[in-house]
């Protein structure tokens, strides 16, 4: 006797509504058949349909194509992906999707928009060792979805200033870090991205102590976002933005050029041990 489908609460959760709609539109189609069409495993689809896992970024559009639902699943996904984050971060995520220019300084970890999947997973595991595998999977999925959304046309211009500690501090071991550093080197100077490394030798500066993101939106609005370990503050006042923007410009002038940053990143990669070590 087949197990009863898990009870969903679509009136309380966008993720549950996504699963309920997926179950309803699938109808008599088996999960095996749907898995073949959308090229996802049956077990993965089952977890999405029962709201145990976040939908991966590529799935909503695939479901809309299969069920001819004119973007319903894509729209539901945009709501569901935000539920995993506290309210205080959702406004920042909404603004991020509207940005035409993003400038970010980070002192400790690779920015979320530039993280590889394995680096993000190692980071979330370190942040909360008690998290379940499903919880980690959901966080990684949402992180990757942020990156995918920023690749949509037109792509925003993104500039990163990374403290030297970002590329020195290992998450996940040498193999994971080597891939992550290679990603950063590839982003250092493209048509839409730049990466600069701020060396330890620079000493102290005005942005120490937290992460700063400066966003210029498509309508010209400029906002700043400051983040520490567990707090985030959105600064929409013009004076606050100008002050942080000036501090960022001073830091950019003191950081290595993108070309020199690539050489520096490659030298750190070469110094990584070959053996995998946590």
Automatic annotation (TrEMBL):
InterPro entries: DUF5753, Lambda_DNA-bd_dom_sf
Pfam families: DUF5753 (PF19054)
Protein origin, superkingdom: Bacteria
Chain ranges of the DUF5753 domain: 90-266
Protein name: Helix-turn-helix transcriptional regulator
Organism: Streptomyces roseoverticillatus
Lineage: Bacteria, Bacillati, Actinomycetota, Actinomycetes, Kitasatosporales
């Amino acid at each position: 006797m087949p197990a009863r489908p898990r009870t969903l609460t679509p009136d309380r959760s966008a993720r549950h509504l996504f699963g309920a709609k997926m179950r309803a539109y699938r109808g008599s189609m088996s999960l095996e058949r749907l898995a073949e069409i959308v090229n996802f495993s049956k077990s993965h689809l089952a977890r999405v349909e029962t709201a145990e896992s976040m939908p991966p970024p590529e799935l909503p559009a695939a479901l809309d194509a299969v069920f001819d639902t004119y973007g319903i699943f894509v729209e539901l996904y945009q709501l569901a992906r935000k539920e995993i984050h506290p309210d205080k971060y959702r406004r920042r995520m909404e603004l991020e999707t509207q940005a035409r220019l993003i400038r970010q300084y980070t002192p400790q970890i690779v920015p979320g928009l530039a993280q590889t999947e394995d680096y993000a997973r190692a980071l979330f595991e370190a942040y909360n060792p008690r998290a379940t595998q499903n919880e980690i999977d959901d966080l990684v999925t949402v992180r990757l979805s942020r990156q995918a959304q920023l690749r949509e046309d037109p792509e925003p211009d993104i500039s990163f200033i990374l403290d030297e500690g970002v590329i020195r501090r290992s998450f996940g071991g040498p193999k994971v870090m080597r891939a992550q550093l290679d990603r950063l080197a590839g982003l250092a100077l493209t048509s839409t991205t730049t990466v600069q490394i701020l060396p330890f030798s620079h000493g102290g500066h005005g942005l120490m102590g937290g992460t700063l993101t400066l966003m210029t939106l498509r309508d010209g609005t400029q906002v700043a976002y400051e983040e520490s370990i567990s707090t985030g503050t959105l600064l929409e006042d013009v004076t606050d933005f100008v002050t942080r923007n000036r501090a960022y410009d001073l830091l950019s002038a003191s950081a290595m050029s993108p070309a020199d940053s690539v050489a520096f990143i490659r030298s750190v990669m070469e110094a990584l041990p070959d053996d995998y070590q946590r």
